[in-house]
Amino acid sequence: MFNYNISFYIRNSRRQGEGTVPIYLRLRIQKEKMEISTGQSIDPKFWNSDKQAVVKSHEAALINSLLNNSKSEVLKAITDLHLSKVEVTIDNVRKLLKGEPVVENFSLLKVVEEHNSNFEKQIGIQYSQGSYKNYKTTLCFLKEFIHQQFHKQDLPLKMVNNKFCEQYYIWLTTEKTSKQNGAGKHIQRLKKVLNYAVKMGYIANNPVTGYVVKMKIVPRIALTWDEINKIQELKLQDERLESIRDIFIFQIYTGLAYSDIKAFCRNHIWKSMDGKTWIRMERTKTRTTFTVPLLQPAMDILQKYLEPVTDKEKPIFPVMCNQKMNAHLKVIQEIAGIAKNLHTHLPRHTFATTITLMNGVPIETVSKMLGHSKITMTQTYAKVGELKIEGDMLALAEKLKK
């Protein structure tokens, strides 16, 4: 919202030859003001400052009508700017009154909202629901930050620079108590929104390209074979817990992420020329195609849930919402007596490390099976493979002793 006020006054300091003074229009928008001549003049004794009009003069009706016309022109300029979603400023009003072109000053939050609206339309096509949710959170944080830091409802894009990013990052890690990587992700999303603004022609270039946030390397936790076996061998009486355990183990042997296992259906199962069964699907998150051979433990679980259905797009596993899945996995963790926190993304880590990398599967192959767009994403898992290196070197040391 913006506040404005239009008023008229006479300028006594510019008394003319016949004793008349010019009438000026004053426009205030927020803290800015503009004063323009109406082209009309009057004897000061006929001016009523309270009514801001000419009184008791034979010219009163004509001059007051012309003043109303001047006011209407200014109001029309303000309305035109508002309707065209151009920032209503003194400078833009002045340009419209002069017949000059007005360059739209796009605001940050409006661009984020537009970006998010278009992003939402691509859910399931290019993007995932989870990614959209993250952009919504970034929008909420930006609104809160701008209100607290600048006492405004929005900011022009021209005010977004490295200093803005630094202030935003500090605010995220102090006021919102975001972790280093969490704050870094919000900065990354802000950069992507600004790239969108460049693409749409709202700004010439991204003003924060040079702003760099160092992300903290978080070690990937994976289950050991002993822990996998403990979960796999549990005798569970609750059918719901049993199905969640089965889904968890199936993920361990396939590397499917939560969103992928939720969408997994018969259309994603295919047989190769040699009769082996594979999973082939697109990652829900990145739309990257990947293929994974079905290992026997995964095949055993799959056979348990395959039903003779005609709808090949119907999900095979009864996957709950992420929050409920994690709550039930916590129960399974306690029953199995495992110290590591079980959650829906842990199987993917375990597939990448314990199942594949630590058994000598090349990292390039693992990257393809995980559906990673860059091998650098897979290399974060490779650090866990240091356990294998340690084991191999201990075995070598024993051989050398002999």
Side-by-side strand order of the widest sheet: 1-2-3
Largest sheet: 3 strands, antiparallel
The arrangement of helices and strands along the chain is EEEEEHHHHHHHHHEEEHHHHHH
- List low-pLDDT spans: none
Structural class: mainly alpha
Query: End-to-end span in angstroms?
Result: 82 Å
- The oligomerization state is single chain
- The number of distinct helices, counting runs of at least 4 residues, comes to 15
Q: What's the mean pLDDT score? A: 89
User: How big a fraction of the residues is strand?
Assistant: 5-15%
- Helix fraction, binned, reads 40-55%
Query: Which CATH architecture of the largest domain is right?
Result: Orthogonal Bundle
Number of domains: 3
- Please tally the β strands and state the result: 8
What are its keywords?
DNA polymerase, domain 1; 3 domains; mainly alpha; hpI Integrase, Chain A; 402 residues
